[in-house]
């Protein structure tokens, strides 16, 4: 199976391709090629563009660099200030396949908090972080997730227009959150930065309170990724 997975990687490395083209290049049955490609996507070794074509994923560059995670390193400098400003839990999420993974998080020292552990894999069907990551995801990923999501295409369009997302008791009862996209040097959305906490403190419109500070933090992260 490892040999087949490597064949898929080499085929995509030659040139981005559709699943049909991938099968033709590797000689693998369609079901096998699809299963391997999806598995490699989960580990970020492959990714799909807006047209649904497979292409090399960011995980390959990270492995070849042999260095630390630049996004997480940047978060270690930006998240403490955001937590200080808001007094709430702050997180950084990265999309992996049809899930979002918490890659950095800090909690307030006292009081009720929304605890999300680093490494936690959450569905992309609820929450402001999910809304942000899905709003800028490829069309195939959106089609796969939206039928099960607590929101629809109209919400994603509003997130793209406004530049941030909010949710109240969507991912978890009693929790409100605000999230904004984090972009790399090329402008591509690579993560979602989020502030979350009890609805009693965050309010029913948490974006009105914290969106500006969140966007400033997202901008600070982008500057550190350049």
TrEMBL record:
Domain HTH iclR-type: 1-58
Pfam families hit by this protein: HTH_IclR, IclR_C
InterPro entries given in the database record: GAF-like_dom_sf, HTH_MetabolicPath_Reg, Tscrpt_reg_IclR_C, Tscrpt_reg_IclR_N, WH-like_DNA-bd_sf, WH_DNA-bd_sf
PROSITE patterns: HTH_ICLR, ICLR_ED
Domain of life: Bacteria
Protein name as it appears in the record: Transcriptional regulator, IclR family
Species per Swiss-Prot/TrEMBL record: Rhodococcus aetherivorans
Keyword entries, A-Z: DNA-binding, Transcription, Transcription regulation
IclR-ED domain mapped to chain residues: 59-226
């Amino acid at each position: 199976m490892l040999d087949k997975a490597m064949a898929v990687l080499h085929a995509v490395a030659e040139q981005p391709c559709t699943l049909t083209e991938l099968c033709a290049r590797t000689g693998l049955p369609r079901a096998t090629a699809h299963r391997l490609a999806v598995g490699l996507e989960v580990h970020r070794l492959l990714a799909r563009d807006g047209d649904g074509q497979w292409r090399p994923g960011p995980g390959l560059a990270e492995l070849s660099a042999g260095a630390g995670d630049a996004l997480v390193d940047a978060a270690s400098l930006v998240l403490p200030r955001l937590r200080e400003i808001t007094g709430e839990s702050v997180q950084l999420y990265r999309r992996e396949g049809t899930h979002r993974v918490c890659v950095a998080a800090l909690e307030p020292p006292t009081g009720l908090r929304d605890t999300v552990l680093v490494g936690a894999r959450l569905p992309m069907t609820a929450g402001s972080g999910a809304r942000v990551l899905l709003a800028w995801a490829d069309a195939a990923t959106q089609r796969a997730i939206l039928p099960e999501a607590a929101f629809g295409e109209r919400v994603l369009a509003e997130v793209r227009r406004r530049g941030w997302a909010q949710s109240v008791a969507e991912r978890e009862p009693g929790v409100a959150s605000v999230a904004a996209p984090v972009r790399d040097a090329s402008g591509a959305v690579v993560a979602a930065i989020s502030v979350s906490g009890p609805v009693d403190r965050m309010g029913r419109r948490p974006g009105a309170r914290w969106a500006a500070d969140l966007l400033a933090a997202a901008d600070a992260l982008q500057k550190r990724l350049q």
